């Protein structure tokens, strides 16, 4: 968790600097901020799943890495403790509809209900909050009213298709860069193993793994309801 604490220290420092108009900071204080810090976000869809998600949470904790989980509502029953653990360990928890429906072209009432049911399940477990939405397959009708920010991705290794750890790691390392949002699914053992290898490789390159919300804020982006974000730059 030390990485996380350091990150918040940096954020607090930046906030102080901003509050002071950016001028009152002693010259050497800025130098204490890590040089060329690169941030990136891992996102996991379709869980939680007992065996795979638990192993992933263990691995992320060992590595001091944060991630974002977009949960399928009907998968939560029986894994409530994992969802509570996600939030307690600093991960962002979001909504991936109740039964993984395609929201693009859906009957508006059905779409709204699919989103609301998972929202209610998360509120019951984690309390009132803003549970961001990742529409299944990444699509939603433009005129659908959504009361939270939405998240797409910039790196998709199609892990669900290959189910091959080495192939997934290779695809992500090829396409990843600062502020990327990486799409994975924590319901496959191959993807969990790939995710942990990706964290190890990119941490060696100086990347810090943060939640999507943290990634946007680190880039000075204020997340807005109904807007779809594809990377840390917006
Ligand atoms: Zn999905």
What does this structure look like?
The protein is of the alpha/beta class and 234 residues long. The two termini are 27 Å apart. The strands form two sheets. Strands 1, 2, 3, 5 and 6 form a five-stranded parallel β-sheet that branches. Strands 4-7 form a two-stranded parallel sheet. The longest helix has 19 residues. It folds into two domains: 35 residues, no CATH class; 192 residues, Glycoside hydrolase/deacetylase (TIM Barrel). The chain is globular, with a radius of gyration of 18 Å. The chain has nine helices and seven strands, in the order ααβαβαβαβααβαβαβ. Helix 3 runs parallel beside helix 8. Zinc ion (ZN) binds next to loops.
Task: Summarize the model shown.
With 234 residues, the protein is α/β, with parallel strands linked by helices. 44% of the residues lie in helices and 12% in strands. The strands form 2 sheets. Strands 1, 2, 3, 5 and 6 form a 5-stranded parallel sheet that branches. The protein has a two-stranded parallel ribbon with strand order 4-7.
Topology:
Layout: H1 2-19, H2 27-31, E1 38-45, H3 50-63, E2 68-71, H4 80-88, E3 92-95, H5 108-126, E4 150-151, H6 159-162, H7 165-175, E5 181-185, H8 189-204, E6 207-209, H9 212-218, E7 228-229
Parallel strand pairs: 1-2, 1-5, 1-6, 2-3, 4-7
The structure holds zinc ion (ZN).
């Amino acid at each position: 968790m030390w990485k996380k604490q350091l990150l918040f220290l940096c954020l607090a420092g930046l906030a102080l600097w901003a509050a002071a108009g950016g001028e009152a900071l002693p010259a050497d204080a800025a130098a204490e901020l890590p040089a060329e810090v690169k941030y990136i976000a891992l996102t996991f869809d379709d869980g939680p799943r007992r065996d795979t998600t638990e192993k992933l949470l263990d691995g992320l904790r060992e590595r001091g890495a944060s991630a974002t989980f977009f949960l399928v509502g009907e998968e939560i029953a029986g894994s409530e403790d994992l969802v509570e653990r996600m939030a307690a360990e600093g991960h962002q928890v979001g909504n991936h509809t109740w039964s993984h429906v395609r929201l693009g072209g859906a009957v508006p009432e059905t779409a709204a209900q699919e989103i609301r049911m998972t929202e209610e399940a998360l509120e019951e477990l984690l309390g009132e909050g803003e549970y961001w939405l990742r529409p299944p397959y990444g699509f939603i009708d433009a005129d659908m009213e959504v009361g939270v920010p939405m998240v797409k991705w910039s790196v998709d290794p199609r892990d669900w298709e290959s189910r091959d750890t080495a192939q997934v790691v290779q695809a992500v390392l090829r396409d990843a860069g600062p502020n990327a949002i990486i799409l994975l699914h924590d319901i496959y053992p191959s993807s969990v193993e790939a995710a942990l290898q990706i964290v190890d490789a990119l941490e060696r390159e100086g990347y810090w793994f943060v939640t999507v919300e943290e990634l946007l804020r680190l880039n000075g982006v204020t997340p807005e309801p109904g807007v779809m974000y594809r990377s840390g730059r917006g």
